[in-house]
Every structure is written in C-alpha cells, then in structure tokens.
C-alpha cells in the first residue's frame, strides 16, 4: 500500500482562500480508498482510477489510499478492514470483481460507502457504476468502417457481455452495410499473449482496423498494429499519443471524472445506492482525438451525431442506446 497525503501549511491569506474554496463542500466525505485488481501504472484503466483518486484528494483535502493486486476475496477483505482503521468512508473497487464482496461485507461497515463497476449493488451503502458502452462502441465502429480499405475490421474484446462490442458492430454496419466485423475474445481483461494471438488471426483475415476492447492489452495490440501499418480504435483512454497515424480515434471512459463526481455526491450526502449508469451526456464518456487521416468532413459528421445523441438519446440509426 502506498499512502498519499496533502498537507496545507500556508500563510494566513492562503488559509483564508482555502476556507473560501471549501465553503460549498460538506464534511460527509472523510478519507477515500481505492482497490485495483492489477496496477495503477497500466496507462489505461488502473491509471484512470488513480488519477480520479488524486483529483478527489486535491478537491476535498482528504487522505487517499490505494492497494494494487486486489484480486481475491481475502486480500479485498483485509484491505477493507485496514481502510476502516484509516478512517476511510468511501471505497472504490475498480472493477466488477468487487461487487459481490462489497455487498457481503457492507453490513459490517455501515459507515463506509462501497462503489464498484458493472456489478450488482444490493445494499444501502453499495453502488455500482456502469458506463453505457454501447454508444461509444457505435461511434468507434462507424469510424473504423469509414476508414477500412479491405472491408474487414476486427474486435479483440475481453468478454462477450461488453456492450461496446455490439455497439461497435452495429455502428460499423450502419456506416457500411457490407463491412465484415470479426470479433475475438480473450476472456480476460489483461491477457496480452492471448490478445496478440487473436490479433494475428485478425490480420491473417485481412482486418485493417482493430478495436482492442480490453484494459491490459490494448497498448500492446496498438503497438503491433503500428508496426504492421494497420489501424486501431483506442479504448478507455485517448490513445492518440501512441501514434496519430495508427489510432483513428478512441472510445474514452473518464473514470477519473466519474470518481470525482461520486466523491462530490458523498460529500453532499447525495450518492444513491444501486446501479447508476453514465453516458456522453454526463461528460464521462467521449470520443478521443481524431487522426489526421480521418477527413474533416467525417469528423464533423461524427461530432454532430454525438451532439444529436446527447440531445435526443437516439443514435444515427434512429435507435436508443439501451446498453
């Protein structure tokens, strides 16, 4: 465990300013803990959670804690016990694997609000956050189909329940009804070896744009695509920095912004229990920077579609995104 603290030892003037900054912040938020299944240094999902933690620390002047490799019930339960001793009253479990443990242990720690992703939240002090991934996948699929020269594009997904996968397929088909979308699965968020095997299969099938929809392997996949002169749609983070001539755009989930939003709600005693969904309209889902290879006209078209979706809830095919 590494512990981050912020101490403000400032002059009287600055203390006065600090008081002004805090006047709209409730005392309901105490300290905050984060559990990640792998690492906060993956540059993608784990890093997003850590950045969110630092934003909370800065905004609310609380102590924050995080623990890595929290991937079994015993380690999670021990971490919760430690966080309770540290005065933590908001715990983020950075994935779906935390939901069951949080529901089970929540009764022992009624003073803590437990927050996880993509799971069930059955107790009054548990909440599960869900990004509506279908819509971002739809716009990513449109972009991939628009750029493909072989009429074959691919997805390397972690699991078949990911809504962004079907969104990608439907968006690609909307853009080009003749496009062939090949979907492969790794059954793990972080299995680089298996993901690269799936990539090799897609390349052999002439897919020239690939959507690596997993956390721990998408950077490795994009690096290989760059070497091969092929193209990618980034995932979770804006991955244009991996190569603007390779990454056509990215489907971005702003977990850091979402964590800040959740902390604000806890501070104001306004965080609901149960499953909460978030989308483009909430400012926590977006498309990343477009490659210069994508024409300005198409960028304008996609941006208008996103704007219309935010305003009406309807995708370009006239359907509502219910995933």
TrEMBL record:
GO terms for cellular component: plasma membrane. Residues 1-23 form the signal peptide. It comes from the Bacteria. Gene3D superfamilies: 3.40.50.2300. The keyword Signal applies. It holds the Pfam family Bmp. Keywords: Cell membrane, Lipoprotein, Membrane, Signal. Residues 30-317 form the ABC transporter substrate-binding protein PnrA-like domain. It is a lipid-anchor. It is found in: Cell membrane. PANTHER family: ABC TRANSPORTER GUANOSINE-BINDING PROTEIN NUPN (PTHR34296:SF2), TRANSCRIPTIONAL ACTIVATOR PROTEIN MED (PTHR34296). Belongs to the BMP lipoprotein family. This is BMP family ABC transporter substrate-binding protein.
């Amino acid at each position: 465990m590494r512990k981050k603290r912020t101490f403000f030892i400032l002059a009287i003037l600055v203390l006065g300013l600090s008081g002004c900054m805090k006047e709209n912040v409730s005392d309901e938020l105490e300290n905050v803990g984060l559990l990640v299944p792998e690492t906060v240094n993956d540059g993608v999902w784990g890093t997003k959670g850590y950045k969110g933690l630092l934003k909370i620390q800065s905004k609310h002047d609380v102590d924050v804690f995080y623990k890595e490799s929290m991937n079994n019930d015993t380690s999670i339960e021990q971490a919760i016990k430690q966080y309770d001793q540290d005065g933590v009253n908001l715990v983020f479990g950075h994935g779906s694997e935390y939901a069951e443990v949080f529901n089970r242990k929540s009764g022992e720690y009624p003073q803590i609000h437990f927050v996880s992703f993509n799971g069930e939240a059955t107790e009054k002090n548990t909440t599960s956050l869900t990004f509506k991934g279908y819509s971002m996948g739809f716009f990513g699929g449109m972009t991939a189909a628009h750029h493909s020269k072989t009429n074959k594009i691919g997805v390397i997904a972690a699991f078949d329940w990911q809504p962004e996968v079907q969104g990608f397929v439907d968006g690609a088909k909307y853009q080009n009804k003749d496009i062939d979308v090949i979907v492969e699965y790794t059954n793990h968020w972080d299995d680089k070896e298996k993901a690269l095997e799936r990539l090799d299969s897609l390349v052999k099938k002439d897919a020239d744009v690939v959507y690596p929809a997993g956390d721990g392997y998408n950077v490795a996949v994009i690096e290989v695509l760059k070497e091969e002169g092929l193209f990618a749609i980034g995932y979770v983070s804006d991955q244009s920095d991996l190569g603007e001539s390779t990454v056509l755009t990215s489907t971005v989930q702003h977990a850091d912004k979402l964590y800040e939003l959740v902390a604000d709600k806890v501070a104001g005693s306004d965080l609901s229990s149960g499953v909460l969904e978030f989308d483009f309209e909430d400012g926590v889902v977006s498309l990343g920077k477009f490659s210069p290879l994508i024409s300005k006209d198409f960028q304008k078209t996609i941006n208008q579609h996103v704007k219309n979706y935010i305003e009406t809830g309807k995708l370009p095919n006239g359907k509502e995104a219910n995933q």
